Amino acid sequence: MDGDAAGFAEAFPLWGKLDDASRETLSRAVTRRAVPAGTALHNGSSDCIGLLAVESGQLRAFIRSEAGKEVTMWRLLAGDVCLLSASCMLHDIQFDITVDAERDTVLWVIPAEVYRSLMDSSAVVANYTSQLMASRLTDAMWLVEQVMWQGFDVRLARFLVDESLLEQTKTLAITHERIAAHLGSAREVVTRMLRYFQGEGLVELARGTVRLTDLDGLRALVARGDV
């Protein structure tokens, strides 16, 4: 692996467990991309750009209904791997997942045919792929449970708490429409609940921002919803 591609060893969690032949195959095939925030990287089951390993930045994986409503499935940060962007290699299993860059991101792309060849020849790669798929399925089932069984107040509080942790700030630069896209809801529903939260002293609202004034109160609301 040349100097420009050396960062792939840190971005791809499985690198240290691979044999020399597998490492050589990946070294020849992998490509590094730097993409600005807002870039669409994968668009549903008809797209198959390959496996994505995040070096830095942040990706968002989400589903979109025919009516255009979105819901975030998970975020991908440094050291995370997106397998579903190469879903065409998974024995005809198709996933209508869209992947966008939420921040300026540097990532590595493993062509789908190369990774599938490694899956067929390496038990280590095959096992890692199965574990990764199981983890994503668990995340998806958890999300379904939240949507079905928890009130929107709890889901919104959880999102705000998680977003504060992710952004390392209590003042979130985010619109009501963007929150709605993450949660699979309507902007009007988000606005009504945020105004309720503001009345309870949990947040303060301004144009394009939500400031968390009582983070402990939001966490307590999430905890009550988890009981």
Task: Provide a descriptive summary of the structure in words.
The chain is an alpha+beta fold and 227 residues long. The chain is built from eight helices and eleven strands. The strands form three sheets. A four-stranded antiparallel beta sheet has the order 1-8-3-6. A hairpin with a 5-residue loop joins strand 4 and strand 5. Helix 5 crosses helix 8 (215-226) and helix 6 packs across helix 7. The longest helix has 27 residues, at 123-149. The radius of gyration is 19 Å and the shape is elongated.
Give the topology, please.
Elements: H1 8-11, H2 20-29, E1 31-35, E2 40-43, E3 51-56, E4 59-64, E5 70-76, E6 81-82, E7 98-101, E8 105-110, H3 112-121, H4 123-149, H5 152-167, E9 171-172, H6 176-183, H7 187-199, E10 203-206, E11 209-212, H8 215-226
Antiparallel strand pairs: 1-8, 2-7, 3-6, 3-8, 4-5, 4-7, 9-11, 10-11
The 3D shape can be described as: elongated
What is the H/E string?
A: HHEEEEEEEEHHHEHHEEH
Question: How many β-strand runs?
Answer: 11
The fraction of residues assigned to DSSP E strands is 15-25%
What strand line-up does the widest sheet have? 1-8-3-6
Cα gyration radius (Å): 19 Å
The end-to-end distance, rounded to whole angstroms, is 50 Å
Number of helix segments? 8
Residue share in helix: 40-55%
Main sheet? 4 strands, antiparallel
- Mean pLDDT reading: 89
Which structural class fits the helix and strand makeup? Answer: alpha+beta
Low-pLDDT segments, ≥5 res:
none
